[in-house]
Design a protein that fits this description.
heterodimer, A: alpha/beta, Alpha-D-Glucose-1,6-Bisphosphate, Chain A, domain 3, 3 domains, 5-stranded antiparallel beta sheet, 15 helices, 20 strands, globular, B: alpha/beta, 7-stranded mixed beta sheet, 16 helices
């Protein structure tokens, strides 16, 4: 067992840690200076979520970028997808979002974007890390020093305008949906209220939309953390409820009965709506439910699988002609016509558009999806444990289709098993899915038996 | 050697050429050390001069202070004295002034100010350096991190303080030209123009980030080449020149002549002692003997301390403010007890104008009423590190019948002349200064320089 506490991680996904003793202003500043050196003194867009450490890190990163001779475009508190789109829209050299996404409030992180507003790919990340470790940063002189610009309103307008290109606004407004929202007091709080109430004309019932307050619930939007949203939907008789994470990229959905829908079903519903409108295939991660295969098949499209992680899915999406992509289990919808990033606003707009354009409640639409039974678990990661588990699993199921691109996935006619190491936490994740509950249970317990050895 | 000169870390703060010397990491770590050092509650105030690198230093300092749990109030582009006044008025825990005063534009610096608005005493500054070197900073947990706000009233409240001491309605009679050297004095003086309806003529008044119109050096040489020639064409009564953060001043008479920077202190001492007879004048061992003459006439007393701001700050703490007439140096930097000892060029300018108004005399007439003193200054590179021997041999060779003082190098006084030889704190140099009543003491100076060259 690894007994070390993982309070700081500097790695291929950037820099993430507990603020205070671990993620210090000095570390953030140096990393930003490395980033500024990497993008060669260009313009860099900088935004953040609502964490109490946001302002402190915003200044540390600004200082590091200026020291490297960059011009800093501060966009303030905004959802991560909004920041990503703005990087591409203004032709900046790169972008940084200060957010630990769904992690608890004591964490923060630097998410890094290239000039296209996309997460750094493997090569970019490795190059940046090398620069960081060499500590050979560009040190601008007073004469080379550029300034800070504040762009307050344009990024939000730009993001929403892009989303609206893909839905029928009049149709949605005419329905005047009763919508519940839990913004977790996150970066999307202001923008979501504006979008749902003012733009889409919903009768909005919102909680936790004060960006000056701390997160009132666990930051990851899951059925067990969205009790308040479910209660709100029931009390206000809403048609649908939306739950966001602190940086507005993930979306959880609650049906009109107050039941929080499985994230895989959300992806399936949004994909169904998207495939109706655009050409192209579907790209999801290996752990996404097979329900997506059923939906894609209905539209005659193929499904491609990638390793887990937004950056991996986006890379996969760039290599095929993709209509939509995402990570089912994580609650992320990626619609490339808006931007190659996970975006809760696209998800909300598509679902409302779908509700407006065809009959049926949310629960009825979910019920119409083919049902799969999912079991998942996690155990503490130990170095050297995953390999033997993969070997014994493959030996136990010699007839299964195997995929080794992220741990091991074994696919059968009636289900699958996926074991992998988490990218962000010291955990081994196990998932099994099948067309019947009994079979799912059987697969999961088989893995657990093998794990116990 | 060139690289070492680009950065200087000393008890007064950290100063360097941005990029090759002073980096963002220095700024961040020093501000974190300061946040760790501060003992009193309250926010920390930040202000900066217009250098482009000020943005970077401000962001670094803000981040470190917030991480230490301090609220930060950003006063924007303001002079060091404005920050010092604001610290007191807002009961702040302290402040950081980001600016390299009289250095060229490529330089910048962090200057640390305590809860009284004054520079840190040597003991505090030493502790700051220890924390900086240990890099053990008191960063707080996520929910205790400070908040950043801005304030734009610091200049206005600073002017409130000045108005309590100076009669602007009376000073308005003077036609004054000011060379702001693209620094923070312009933001203050623009407000003085509006608020007191005083049509000051401001030149080089635009805040510049990358390059100043000329070096922001408050010397007679700079006044002579820049400001002096404008005075007569503009029919001004006086001209003043400020460094970038407006803590020092140099001036010119209505005839366009540069007044020696050495004259500012005796001039203001004369005015202050007329108002507060019998008080003390605190200055360093290299300052003109004219100040002794002025004090003698007004029944005051001169206290000499080692060269450098730190010595003056430390010495002042041992006196009650009402014992002191003023404190200052021969560089045009003076501090008044009315403002609880802030080096303030604007206050010095107003003081000089007040003296002109009180006496109904032009600046050249007032300067002409003082006995003439002549000063010679030289410097010799220090090669051998035999510093005590240097002083003792000089004392043997030149000290006969004089009164010797070894507080800071060697100073020897005779009734009509004196010299001061000391090793610079900032550069590997021996500085030689001689002064005499009347004509320059050329023979003494040449003899000293020859000996110092041999011994240094």
């Amino acid at each position: 067992m690894s007994k070390r506490e993982h309070l700081l991680k500097i790695g291929v996904s950037g820099i993430r840690g507990v603020v205070g003793g671990f993620l210090t202003p000095g570390l953030a500043c140096e990393f930003a200076q490395a980033f500024g050196t990497y993008v060669e003194q260009g313009r860099v867009v900088l935004g953040r979520d609502t964490r109490s450490s946001g302002e402190m890190l915003e200044n540390a990163v600004t200082a590091g970028l200026l020291a490297a001779g960059c011009e800093v475009i501060q966009v303030g508190v905004l959802p991560t997808p909004t920041i990503q789109m703005y990087v591409a829209a203004i032709g900046a050299a790169g972008g940084i979002a200060l957010t630990a996404s769904h992690n608890p409030p004591e964490y923060n992180a630097l998410k890094l974007f290239n000039h296209a507003g996309l997460f750094f790919n493997h090569y970019e990340r490795a190059e940046l890390l090398d620069l960081y470790h060499q500590s050979d940063f560009y040190q601008a002189t007073n004469e080379e020093m550029r300034g800070v610009q504040v762009h307050a309103d344009r990024p939000m307008a730009l993001h929403l305008e892009r989303v609206l290109r893909h839905v029928d606004l009049d149709l949605i407004r005419a329905r005047r949906f009763r919508v519940a929202l839990d913004g977790v007091n996150g970066a999307g709080s202001r923008m979501s209220v504006h979008f749902l109430r003012d733009v889409l004309g919903c009768d909005l019932h919102a909680i936790s939309v004060d960006p000056t307050q701390v997160f009132p619930r666990e930051a990851e939007p899951r059925p067990d953390t969205l009790g308040d949203l479910a209660a709100l939907v029931r009390r206000e008789h809403c048609d649908i409820g939306f739950g966001q994470d602190p940086d507005g990229d993930r979306l959880a959905v609650c049906d009109e009965t107050g039941h929080v829908i499985d994230n895989d079903d959300v992806l399936a519903l949004v994909s169904d709506a998207a495939l109706e409108r655009v050409e192209g295939d579907v790209v999801v991660n290996l752990t996404t439910s097979s329900v997506i295969d059923a939906v894609a098949a209905r539209h005659g499209r193929r499904v491609f699988r990638t390793p887990v992680g937004e950056a991996n899915v986006v890379e996969g999406m760039q290599s095929v002609r993709t209509a939509i992509g995402g990570e089912g289990s994580n609650g992320g919808v990626i619609f490339p016509s808006v931007h190659l990033c996970r975006d809760s606003y696209t998800g909300m707009a598509f679902l409302l558009n779908r509700l407006a354009s065809s009959p049926g409640t949310v629960s009825e639409r979910v019920a119409a999806l083919p049902s799969f039974f999912r079991r998942s678990g996690k155990v503490a990661f130990e170095h050297g444990r995953l390999g033997p588990l993969m070997q014994s699993l493959e030996a136990a199921y010699p007839d299964a289709d195997t995929n080794r691109s992220d741990g091991l996935k074994l696919t059968f006619a009636d289900g699958w098993i996926h074991v992998r190491a988490s990218n962000t936490e010291p955990l081994l994740r196990i998932a099994a899915e099948a067309t019947t509950a009994a079979r799912a249970e059987q697969l999961q317990s088989a893995v657990e038996r093998l794990l116990r050895g | 050697m060139q690289r070492a000169k680009a950065l200087r870390i000393s008890p007064v703060g950290v100063r360097g050429i941005v990029g090759p010397g002073l980096t963002v990491t220095h700024a961040l770590d020093f501000a974190a050390a300061f946040g760790t050092l501060l003992a009193t509650d309250g926010p920390v105030l930040l202000g900066r001069d217009p250098r482009s690198s000020g943005n970077m230093l401000r962001a670094a300092a803000t981040s470190a202070l917030l991480a230490c749990g301090r609220d930060v109030i950003d006063l924007g582009i303001v002079s060091t004295p404005v920050i010092q006044h604001a610290i007191r008025r807002r009961n702040a825990a302290g402040g950081i002034s980001l600016g390299a005063s009289h250095n060229a534009a490529e330089w910048n610096a962090l200057k640390f100010l305590g809860p009284a608005g004054t520079y840190l005493a040597s003991s505090e500054a030493g502790e700051l350096l220890d924390i900086y070197h240990l890099k053990k900073f008191a960063f707080v947990d996520w929910h205790q991190i400070g908040k950043l706000s801005t304030a734009d009233d610091a200049i206005e409240t600073y002017l409130d303080d000045l108005e309590r001491v100076f009669d602007f309605a009376r000073l308005r009679q003077f036609r004054v030209v000011v060379d702001c050297c693209n620094g923070t004095s312009s933001t203050i003086l623009e407000r003085v123009r509006e608020r007191f309806a005083w049509p000051l003529i401001l030149i080089n008044a635009r805040l510049e980030g990358a390059a100043f119109a000329h070096e922001p050096e408050t010397s007679a040489r700079m006044v002579g080449s820049q400001l002096g020639p404008l005075i007569q064409p503009l029919a001004a009564d006086a001209g003043f020149l400020f460094d970038a953060d407006a803590d020092r001043v140099a001036c010119a008479t209505s005839r366009g002549e540069a007044l020696s920077e050495e004259l500012i202190l005796p001039l203001v001492a004369d005015g202050q002692l007329a108002k507060f007879p019998g008080r003390l004048v605190l200055t360093n061992l290299s300052t003109t003997a004219l100040v002794d003459e002025v004090a003698r006439r007004r029944g005051g007393e001169v206290i000499r301390v080692p060269v450098g701001r730190q010595a003056a700050i430390d010495a002042l703490s041992g006196y009650r403010p009402e014992q002191i007439a003023l404190a200052g140096e021969g560089t045009g930097a003076i501090m008044l007890p009315q403002f609880r000892f802030v080096y303030d060029g604007i206050a010095a300018m107003l003081m000089v104008l007040t003296i002109m108004a009180d006496r109904g005399q032009a600046l050249h007439e007032i300067a002409g009423s003082f006995p003439r003193y002549s000063m010679l200054k030289g410097e010799v590179p220090l090669k051998q590190m035999r510093i005590p021997q240097l002083y003792s041999e000089l004392r043997d060779a030149f000290g006969h019948q004089g009164r010797a003082d070894t507080l800071d190098g060697l100073r020897v006084d005779w009734p009509e002349q004196w010299f001061h030889v000391r090793v610079s704190q900032t550069e590997p140099l021996v500085r030689v200064i001689c002064e005499a009543q009347g004509d320059p003491p050329q023979a003494l100076f040449d003899g000293l320089m020859e000996q110092v060259r041999r011994l240094a």
